[in-house]
Amino acid sequence: MKRALIIACFDSYSYNVRTKYVEEYLTDENYKVEFLISDFDHRTKDTYSCQRKNVKYIHVPKYKKNMSICRMISHCIFALKVKKYLNTHIYDIIYITTPPNFLFYTLKSFKKNHMIFEIGDLWPETFPNRIRFKIMDLFFFMWRKLRDYNLSNNNYYLYECKLFESIINNNTKNPLKGKTIYLCKNDTYKRMVRKLDNEKFRLLYLGSINNIIDIDLIVEFCQSLKQKKPVVLSIVGVGERKEELLNRLRNIDIELNDYGSVFDEKDKEIIFSDCNFALNIMKSSVCVGLTMKSIDYFSYGIPLINNISFDSEEIIEKNNCGFNINRDNVNKIAELLSELSDVEYQCLVKNTYKTYEKFFSVYSFNKSFAEVLNSLN
């Protein structure tokens, strides 16, 4: 039996992470799949373990702050121990999730097997609060070069979005072997029959409410909608700026349904069934082409109100599954929503479901990943 290894500094298996679907696909293709992960949970900042039997752990130092020397040391030790492990173990396929960027450095010269690097984020590009001191700029530059200088065409690269692929290839002298495959999720529920509420705008916000969310744009948009008819916003999520968002929306008399954190798909289905449009809004300075929340929106057939550029903007424009919003067209989008007929809305819903199936379904991922594996043979 062929053997495959999935390497993940952050396991996060309980979420809809890509490695879950990589494992399922490889298992179906008769690979014996193992995981090599750290024993530290980045979210809880505590020791990490799971019940899966095919997991091997790498012990790393704990850290308390996301931006700290301790975190860098922890990541460096993880990368060095991964290389040491691979020197004594042989696999037919090695699938590596990044960041951390140290993995590019330690594994650059490792050429024993087919190695696929998943670039699921760009650090330091996506760091939300860059402190503008020269010493920090130098650190960010070195952090980025740790990745860019150690990318090798001996390996294959999977990108979470076309934006990341574009940035990486612009930073390297020659285009790398690789392609963009969007994240996916299981669709285990029935298609919803959505009805447009002609009396109220019913909006949904899903996910963390933190310092990369454009609260000003959300409030401005809700205020513009409210001039047409009442607005109801359902919020599924938590975050350090949640109270700020809630208070500002209350000040303009927006009706709020605060559900907190909800992970069960059936519970989400009940909440989402009462919403007509979903907010996919971040600060324009954030380096992201596609959000995890948008995949949830697509899978439930909720048309998007989006300001994420590059991939998200292009997908919505080409597939007619929502509206792209910016500072200059807030009132125009509000006007379009107020004039939307039920027939036009049903068309948007239908297109949103189709977009999910085309780009974000497990079937779509399996088809694309099969092409990747065939290209390695």
Give the helices and strands, then pairings.
Blueprint: E1 2-8, H1 18-28, E2 31-38, E3 40-41, E4 46-47, E5 55-58, H2 69-86, E6 93-98, H3 102-106, E7 114-119, H4 134-148, E8 156-159, H5 162-171, E9 178-180, E10 201-206, H6 215-226, E11 231-236, H7 242-251, E12 255-260, H8 265-272, E13 277-280, H9 292-299, E14 304-306, H10 311-319, E15 322-324, H11 330-338, H12 342-360, H13 362-376
Parallel strand pairs: 1-2, 1-6, 2-5, 6-7, 7-8, 8-9, 10-11, 10-13, 11-12, 13-14, 14-15
Antiparallel strand pairs: 3-4
User: How are the strands ordered across the major sheet?
Assistant: 5-2-1-6-7-8-9
Number of helical segments with 4 or more residues: 13
Note the gap between the termini.
17 Å
Kindly state the mean pLDDT as a whole number?
91
Strand content: 15-25%
Can you summarize the main beta sheet? 7 strands, parallel
Number of strand segments:
15
Radius of gyration: 22 Å
| H/E series | EHEEEEHEHEHEHEEHEHEHEHEHEHHH
Percent range of helical residues: 25-40%
Protein traits:
six-stranded parallel β-sheet, seven-stranded parallel β-sheet, 40% helix, 377 residues, single chain, globular
Would you write up a description of this structure?
- The chain is of the alpha/beta class and 377 residues long.
- Helices cover 40% and strands 19% of the residues.
- The chain is built from 13 helices and 15 strands.
- The protein is globular, with a radius of gyration of 22 Å.
- 35% of the residues are buried.
- The model has no long low-confidence stretch (mean pLDDT 91).
